[in-house]
Amino acid sequence: MHARPEAWILSIGNELLVGRIVNTNASWLARRLTFMGFNVSRIITIPDSIDDIVLEVRRGLGKVRVIITTGGLGPTHDDVTLEGIAKALNKNLILNSEAYEMIKEFYNRRNMPLTRERIKMAYMPEGARALRNPIGSAPGCIIEVDSTIIVSLPGVPREMEAIFEEEVKSILEIIAPKISIVECSLKTRGIPESSIAPFLEHIAKSHSNVYVKSHPLGFELDKPILELRLLVSATSEDTAKGIARSIMEDIIREVLKLGGSTSSEYCV
Question: Which of 52, 103, 108, 234 has the fewest Cβ atoms surrounding its Cβ within 10 A?
């Protein structure tokens, strides 16, 4: 693929590591970032631990362009994400006036008092900016240090998605590369994955802006079913679609040559 800004996703929460919660946030973010033109090179899951947060943030600081964390922004004792980020950046954790006003407004509308636990959600690393949460109580947070933008979002999927779409997307679009990405999918029947593998390797080596991957889907009437996925990046959508169509035609010809059949072809 074209050289693209690198992004990491840092999923924080004990509930992810014990298998109680499926990490749909990471999947959603990875897809959004990829189609914006970022290269998502890490998805890391860690516990609600300040030391672990410090370790992973410092690993990426100055190395990757964007780190997005999810989880750990709430009012409970184990919500320590922003404390960990502040420590990783050698910054004080302070009461953020923007975040405080957002939280105050949220609870005032519900005739609920501002308790110590609720005010806790307004503490952010010094120099950070609060991101409005249009659904829940915990604001998001963004700060840039050593050319790395660190975005912290809640773990609740609806809240995470809403803050990303309404606050984060426009910020990241400024640094995202001006490229278009097209995704294609094709199902094949009757050829083993090992048979098509050499041809897919040839495609990958011949096109630096193409990612191709096969996924076995089991068997139907004792014949193997595969899903082939293609990601193509180019400077314009028309160019990307043209490259994708050409490669898909080559793949279909190869599948037929190997004695298989194809179905369910689409490109978006």
Answer: 108
Residues 14 and 108 in one domain: yes
Alpha-carbon gap, residue 13 to 25, rounded angstroms? 12
Do 35 and 69 fall within a single domain?
yes
Q: Could you say which DSSP state residue 107 is in?
A: H
Structure tokens at 124: 């952010």
Type of residue found at 104: K
The secondary element (H helix, E strand) that includes residue 229 is strand 223-234
Q: Which two tokens stand for residue 37?
A: 């033109």
Give the domain extent around 195. Answer: 180-267
**Residue 159 sits in the same domain as residue 189:** no
My answer on whether 200 and 234 are in the same domain is yes
Final residue of a domain: which of 175, 190, 215?
175
Q: What pTM does this model have?
A: 0.90
Do 148 and 42 touch, CB atoms closer than 8 A?
no
Contact by Cβ (8 Å): 111, 121:
no
Q: Contact 1/60 with Cβ under 8 angstroms? A: no
pLDDT tens readout for residues 17-76:
999 999 999 999 999 999 999 999 999 999 999 999 999 999 999 999 999 999 999 999
CA angle 102, 108, 110 (to 5 degrees): 115
Number of CB atoms found within 10 A of residue 238's CB: 11
Yes or no: say if 181 and 37 are a contact pair by the CB < 8 Å rule: yes
Are residues 26 and 92 part of one domain?
Answer: yes
